[in-house]
Design goal:
Layout (H helix, E strand, L loop, with lengths): L8 H10 L6 E4 L2 E9 L11 E8 L3 H5 L8 H8 L1 H8 L5 H5 L1 E6 L4 E7 L18 H7 L4 E2 L12 E6 L6 E8 L2 E9 L2 H26 L8 H10 L9 H12 L4 H10 L7 H7 L6 H10 L2 H4 L11 H18 L10 E2 H11 L3 H10 L7 E2 L13 H10 L1
Antiparallel strand pairs: 1-2, 2-3, 4-5, 5-9, 6-7, 7-8, 8-9, 10-11
Helix pairs in contact: 3-4, 8-9, 8-11, 9-17, 10-12
């Protein structure tokens, strides 16, 4: 690009004064712009004298781009400066960005801004950041940053690692600069947002509140486990059941109320064999506490609870790991109800022989087989005749499957 001025010495002087920045570099994101001025002779044969202004642009180096990072920058500003790929690497703590550039960016996802930037010893010495360069002497630092002082707690003598730490808050910049000196030179330095202490304190308060809320939510979600009445237990579970963030408890409450008003043991059997255990076993506990529950249903639930994992503790409940105790006790309650004849209904088919064939393959030693015999219900290995409800197309199960679809 070329620009010309009018002819005349006076005009030439006026224009040349306006180009006082000639030969200097103007910084812009990801671009360096150099402007040079060429003066043509005033008395050029058959030509008008003019000034030729030449613009030369070339990409900034990555180090120069990184030198312009500042605390409180948002992702869009970082991307405008570095480009999408380098921005992604800079904000990914596992990308090895510091290892290749000498710069570590501490980004707060809570606030959506940069908290701090570390420039390590491997950052290029010829690139300045807020007046600071790696390898700079303390005297040069003091000239560049007149407000430089020793950091709190520093005596001016090197610590056990050979470092003396300085700090400065330049009036023109909304940052705090912490500088580590080793052997009389700048070894590394960091830029911090000036309100970082307040931000950390706020985040700690918010995290404490979040944990307290989570603990309270967990406490409410577990109350059902200590409720004796089956209906009250089921409702207590439903009212606080929200296993995923987008699952409101209301749909579990609707399901629980529907289940409590359903008196058909065949429907309970479909619920039991289709239930998603990720939502806990409360509906199954409600089912096994109903006297009208079919024996086949209780046995199906027993095997669905993975008894092969729990039988090893059959004679020593105290050795059950705490995280497994709840399900161990669930199986124990089911076994006890079967053993004392709590269930009288037996209209649904059950193939215990097939179930136990898989279990027996996993019993490797005589001790395993003896423990399993004491743990598994007597009817667990029996073939019980009755109606086969597996994959039943009976119309009466339509509502049941529709209700299950709302929660499963």
């Amino acid at each position: 690009m070329n620009g010309k001025t009018p002819r005349g010495i006076g005009e030439l002087k006026r224009v040349s004064k306006g180009l006082a920045f000639a030969g200097s570099a103007i910084r812009a994101p990801r671009l360096m712009l150099r402007i040079g001025v060429t003066l043509q002779p005033l008395f050029w044969p058959k030509k008008s004298p003019y000034i030729s202004v030449h613009y030369e642009a070339w990409p900034m180096s990555l180090a120069q781009q990184l030198s312009q990072l500042r605390p409180l920058m948002i992702p869009a500003e970082i991307e405008a400066l570095l480009g999408p790929e380098e921005k992604k690497r800079a904000l990914d703590m596992f990308s090895g960005f510091q290892r290749t550039t000498g710069v570590s960016v501490n980004f707060s996802h809570a606030d959506g801004v940069i908290d701090s930037i570390l420039y390590s010893a491997m950052f290029p010495r010829d690139v300045a950041v807020c007046g600071v360069q790696i390898g700079m002497t303390v005297d040069a630092l003091r000239k560049a940053l007149p407000d430089l002082r020793l950091a709190d707690g520093q005596t001016g003598k090197p610590d056990e690692h050979g470092f003396i730490r300085y700090q400065v808050k330049p009036a023109a910049l909304n940052v705090r600069i912490d500088i580590s000196i080793k052997n009389g030179e700048v070894y590394s330095f960091s830029l911090y947002r000036v309100d970082l202490d307040e931000a950390w304190a706020r985040r700690q308060r918010q995290e404490a509140e979040r944990r307290a809320g989570t603990d309270r939510k967990r406490e409410l979600a577990n109350i059902w486990k200590s409720v004796e009445n089956a209906d009250e237990m089921l409702l207590s579970w439903a009212e606080h059941c929200s296993p995923w963030t987008d699952d409101p408890p209301q749909k579990f409450v609707r399901f629980a109320r529907w289940l409590m008003t359903t008196s058909d043991p065949d429907v309970w059997h479909i619920v039991a064999t289709s239930w998603n255990w990720d939502y806990s076993h409360a509906p199954l506990l409600w089912i096994i506490r109903q006297e009208k529950c079919d024996i086949a249903t209780t046995l199906e639930i027993f095997f669905l609870a993975d008894p092969i994992y729990y039988f090893r503790w059959a004679k020593d409940r105290s050795s059950v790991p705490p995280r497994n105790l709840e399900m161990f006790d669930f199986l124990a309650e089911l076994r006890q109800r079967l053993a004392r004849g709590f269930y009288q209904r037996s209209e649904i088919a059950f193939d215990g022989e097939e179930h136990m064939s898989y279990i027996n393959r996993a019993l490797q030693t005589p001790d395993d087989r003896a423990l399993a015999e004491s743990f598994f219900p007597l009817k667990a290995g029996q073939k019980i005749p009755g109606r086969d409800l597996k994959d039943s197309k009976d119309d009466k199960f339509g509502e049941c499957r529709a209700m299950l679809a709302t929660v499963n």
